[in-house]
Amino acid sequence: MKPQQRERPVPHSADEFKVHVHNSGSEGLFTNAFIVETARSVVVIDAMMRVSDARGVRARVEATGKPLVGLIVTHGHPDHYNGAAEITRGLDVPMIATKGVDAVIRRIDDAKEKQWKPIFGEDWPATRRFPNQFVKEGETLHFDGVPFTVWELGEGESHWDSYWVVGRDASVAFVGDIVFGGVHSFMNDGHSALWLKNLDRLEAKLSADALLFTGHGAPSASRASLEAQRRYLHLYRKTVRELAQGKSTLDDKAKARLVQVMKQHLPTSDLETFITAGANAVAAELAREEAERADD
Prior knowledge:
Elements: E1 4-8, E2 18-23, E3 32-37, E4 42-45, H1 51-64, E5 68-72, H2 78-81, H3 84-87, E6 95-98, H4 99-120, E7 133-135, E8 140-143, E9 146-154, E10 161-166, E11 172-174, H5 192-205, E12 211-213, E13 220-222, H6 225-244, H7 252-265, H8 273-277, H9 279-295
Parallel strand pairs: 4-5, 5-6, 6-7, 11-12
Antiparallel strand pairs: 1-2, 2-3, 3-4, 8-9, 9-10, 10-11, 12-13
Helix pairs in contact: 5-6, 6-7, 6-9
């Protein structure tokens, strides 16, 4: 599947900015990067994993005819920061994140390269850059007069999640992987209980008519997508708990049953490898929860 480039005007904020979407396609995990175009400049949110996808984002930036003034990273998974050096090549552009996100990127980068470079070969960036401008919880940056406000959630879908609310009416949020857009969810980091709490925190912050831009799959969704994500996580946890029976791992037969249950709930093959990939991490998480309850 070839990368897709789509332009989507943002409701209620068309006078301030519009959002262009670059999707990596199936080989790049259906990852989304966003080009936020203001009247005189461009800000990129998330940076893709592969060189080819990052170059696609850079080409989309250049097609606007406006300067790139910032690159924001929502969380520390390589499919959201890896392409930063390629997107900003030859430009003096800050790479912006919270210190929590930055710490995760620096901690996992070597291991992720060992995991993924044999798969992607030359399409894996030989040079990766890390954030060099840091923002704190609730801090607002202004690009061309448009406010970008960061909120931290900490451990959840990843080892450290943040999201960005953009525009004067605060009705647009770039939520990284806190919400998946109609594809199966990445469970490998083993913080599913905290992820559920983060969905509640996010929901409490968002306006009723909020538009969410998501890290994978369909690029935008309404606030109702929070409940869909919540249902997915509850079912995944429930099924793993029943199949694991207190153990910290699932055997192949149990994993196959988990796939059946989750695909019945979400009938798509997009990112279905995530279902089994995260099974042991969640089984171990649930086993720890049970042990903690027993200690109490």
